[in-house]
Backbone:
């Protein structure tokens, strides 16, 4: 799980707006062999001062300290949805263009199919984001008192 600390700066309508308090990081062994490389993963939070709107299931108060959490697997799912789907559709579009094109226009057809595959990816991801929302179960807030985290990325010492 990827997490960082934040403070509530505004609330309302079932949402809380939180400002990051720290640059997300790891246990200090990030660059060493066997380290978790947490700062690379936590760059998604992009440093202190950034404000996020999150669902507020607790009725958070102004200036309350919280933790923002992204569950394991969410970054991989996002990468597969964007890069994986984009690559597959771009290659499929190029292959379909080559297959359907007359011999004299193969290069143009491949390029056109590639562009159409990428455009299809953008449209699919846009529709999916509009239908399901971008924050659904992606980024959640926890009160700091819950499940006190210790060590690298919230894992207990010796884990």
Residues:
């Amino acid at each position: 799980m990827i997490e960082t600390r934040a403070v509530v700066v505004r609330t309302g309508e079932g949402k809380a707006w939180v400002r990051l308090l720290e640059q997300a990081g790891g246990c200090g062994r990030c660059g060493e062999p066997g380290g978790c490389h947490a700062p690379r993963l936590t760059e998604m939070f992009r440093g202190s001062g950034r404000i996020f709107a999150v669902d507020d299931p607790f009725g958070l108060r102004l200036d309350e300290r919280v933790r923002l959490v992204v569950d394991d697997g969410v970054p991989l799912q996002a990468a597969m949805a964007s890069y994986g789907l984009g690559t597959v559709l771009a290659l499929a579009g190029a292959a379909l263009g080559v297959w359907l094109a007359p011999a004299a226009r193969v290069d143009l057809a491949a390029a056109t199919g590639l562009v159409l595959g990428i455009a299809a990816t953008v449209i699919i991801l846009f529709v999916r984001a509009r239908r399901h929302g971008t924050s659904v179960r992606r980024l959640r807030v926890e009160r700091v008192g819950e499940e006190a985290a210790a060590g690298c990325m919230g894992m207990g010492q010796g884990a």
Notes: The chain is about 35% helix and 20% strand. The longest helix spans residues 74-100. The two ends are 14 Å apart (CA to CA). The helical segments are 38-42, 74-100, 106-132.
